[in-house]
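Troubleshooting entry. The earlier prediction with pyridoxal-5'-phosphate gave an output that would not parse, so I re-checked the input for stray whitespace and re-submitted. Clean input:
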Amino acid sequence: MNQPAAVCAEIDLGALASNVRLMQQIAGSDKQLIASIKANAYGHGVVPIAQALQDLKVDALATGSLKEAQLLRQHGIVLPILLFAFADSELTMRAVTEGFIPTLTHLQMAEAISGVVKNPTSVYLKIDAGLGRLGEPLDSARQWVEKIFQLPNLRIEGIYTHVPFADSKQRDWAAQRLQAFDQFVAELKNAGYQFSVTQAMASCCLLARLQDHCNAVCVGHALYGLSPFSSPGSVDVSQLRPVMKNLKSRIIHTSHHAEGSDIAVGGLYGLKRPRTIGVLPTGMAHGLCKPVEGKVMAVLIRGRKAKVLSVSLEHTTVDLDGMEGVSPGDPVTLLGYDGDEEITLSSIATAWGIQPLEALMRLSGRFPIRSMDATEESGRI
Ligand SMILES: *Cc1c(COP(=O)(O)O)cnc(C)c1O
């Protein structure tokens, strides 16, 4: 028998479209938009998000997972899929044979691919312009690129770098790194090396209104309405609309506890007054976490806030104090609106002592996701 899901999410494709348009507007019409859909589209469900992005006519998708890329092809996604550096040469070879565009981060990988493929194969080159993680460092990149161009059977389609920053204090650093990358690409072009795609800016750069001379941007966070900045308020992100619209569960049981009895699950012993609690079939197994010391987590039931008393492996208990008539089957909103009340992703993240994107990662892939079209939008804007 099919069991109803313990928790269910709804994504707002109207919000996704609005964020895509905003990013295109900030980037300018001359820039291609590569949409980052890594990590299960930042927890939003990679298949429905990729389908919507294809309908919105973004130029390409990018992920760090071959599995995700394969899944998208099975679901009718025909957009070019760039693989961020994700594996050693062997697995990267497999990605190439399956028609994905790999990122080359070192010479041996370029040589390995060039030595095996028979026909010109599209690749992107990754340059480290200061992040210090992947790619050839700018200082030695000129020679590196020249060597790769000499290898047969590679169509070097793109060159890119990544200069993310989480705090607006690093805005100047990023601006300077973008400039250094621009200059590098200009020198290569002057020497006759051509790339159809050059890219350096991610969400933070666009939201902070930085500029560069590349012809593409690669955006993730902002498309989902997530701020890439750790401190709120440093850069205006108010125009972004959250794509994770709501997360719903339901009550499966309620119980009344007389004065003097215990609700040990909530750490309540010898109750000073009668209490009522509700149980949700949703717990850590579905990505929920306990609130950290000193923080409160709430859910919405019948348009009102109810405090979470405990989160265990498969259950969450909530305090129904002062709520009349709540019964099994009643919907519970873990995220989103119920009437005028709202639980935001950032309030959940605060209760868990983490960033909103980390909260989405804990929840990611653990429950079904339903898409909501712009036309379906009922509640609030
Ligand atoms: C994830 C990623 C991006 C997108 O970054 P956001 O901050 O989510 O916009 C761009 N480039 C690379 C290489 C990435 O890994």
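This one parsed fine. Residues 36, 38, 84, 162, 164, 202-204, 218-221, 228 surround pyridoxal-5'-phosphate (CB under 6 Å).
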